[in-house]
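[job 4417] fold queue: 2 targets
>>> target A
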Amino acid sequence: MNTIIIALLVAALAGVAMAVQGSLNAVLGKYIGFLETTLVVHLVGTAIVLLALYVFRLGSGDLAQFKEAPWYTYLGGALGVIIIFAVAFTLPRAGVANATTAIIIGQVATAMLIDQLGLFGLEKVPISWWKGLGLGFLAAGGYFMLCK
């Protein structure tokens, strides 16, 4: 199977996981609070990654190289906190489909900007008219999703 197809299937699986995770986080947030949920989610995730790395030896990288990465690459952890809190807070108020629609539109628009500018040392991928049109259709679909 083509490598791009496999990557897109993995990305779709990530989308499924994000919708389920957001829903679970929203429910947990009703019980323990949204910031508390953010902490618990990160603690559980940390425990799983520690098991994967040190018990099951699944890692293929070298943590000793962490000093070599640019400082801004570590902001992903802070963004993770914002994402988990925002999703857990938003889903019970807007609904899973509505919140996910807004998330996806924001995500794709930002991803296109990152591609266009080649931010963070990533390869530049120019925005074509077709991609712009696709984003427009995505936004229009989002509008229809959010209509009552």
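>>> target B
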Amino acid sequence: MNLDTYFPYKLASTAEAFSRQLVEVYGRTYGLSREEWRMLLLLADAGQLTSLELAQRTTLDKVQVSRAATRLEDKGLIKRDVAKSDRRLRVYKCTDKGQQLFQDAYPQVQTCADSILGNMTEAELSFLQDGLTALARAVDTYKKNQMEPAS
């Protein structure tokens, strides 16, 4: 087997390398971990999310969500409450301080991402976007097929 051509490895290692460059921005400048950044990004966009929604929208499990939330709450960037509809769930939202930090950090993170992607031609970037969309659709189809009972 050649790892350079093994698709799952190549995809994961490339995504990790890309992500590490972004961590340099929000980690070094703002002291956020990858998990904290993901939560802040989602909360700044959505306004508020439950612990279940956060786990579904990120690659984080419930424990990672809880730990990152504790750190963000300790920094005064988010607040969490018990969901009225289900006391097992937590509802998270950004504080004003969290929104401000996100507004400060996001343009710098986006500039870094744009600089990396700027090394690709427009056609390559378009193919990549189409490929990622197709891959996401294929994964969803696979998951649905795995859930269906065998006839």
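[job 4417] complete. Note on B: The chain has two domains: 7-117, 120-151.
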